[in-house]
Amino acid sequence: HCLHTGKHRRSHRQLLNASTMYSVSYNYRIQYRHLPGNPGMYPVLDVQLSRGNLATNVVAIVDTGAQRSLISGEHALAMGIDITSGSQQRLYTLSGSILTWKHPVRVQVFELLIATELCFSEFRLPRNILGRDMQEMLELGFSEHYSTLFVSPTP
Q: Tell me, what's the pLDDT at 148?
């Protein structure tokens, strides 16, 4: 096999001489999925958010370019959260900015239960985003060629 990066071509032998090879194993293999109203296939995770005894299931795109996770306001309401009572935080995107509110919640990803703060919009979003704030608690691997996301809880 060869790795292709633009016009450059390096063989495994060259890579072995240039750096250390690593091997990572993952607990879960998830095929990319189509999300209604969004073109294309995405690396998504099904997570459960909870606060107190109320919970909601969320389908979220794993976005390695997003510093913070952003969840549609309907999910905050499903957990009984008064969205605008949280800590205000403006998030910036390529197309502008969005005003959000941070709230403490529990996030369940497979067997991992994480207590954290997530940003919620005041309105319905076309997609939910799991940003790097959540990704630091997971080992992630991506295969764009096979449209596959690999996931393990961080040890």
A: 96
**Quick one: 26 exposed, middle or buried, by C-beta within 10 A (0-12, 13-18, 19+)?**
middle
Strand partners, 60: 45, 128
- The whole-angstrom separation of Cα 125 and Cα 77 is 13
For the chain, give the DSSP string.
-EEEETTEEEEHHHHHHHS-------SEEEE-EE-TTS-SEE-EEEEEEEETTEEEEEEEEE-TT-SS-EE-HHHHHHTT--GGGSEEEEEEETTEEEEEEEEEEEEEETTEEEEEEEEE-SS--SSEEE-HHHHTTEEEEEETTTTEEEEEE--
Whole-angstrom CA distances from 65 to 5, 57, 74, 131, 134 are: 20, 23, 24, 7, 12
β partners of residue 116: 105
Question: CA 80, 115, 94: angle at the middle one, nearest 5?
Answer: 80
pLDDT in tens, 87-127: 999 999 888 899 999 999 999 999 899 999 999 999 899 89
In the block, residue with structure tokens 């690999």? 150
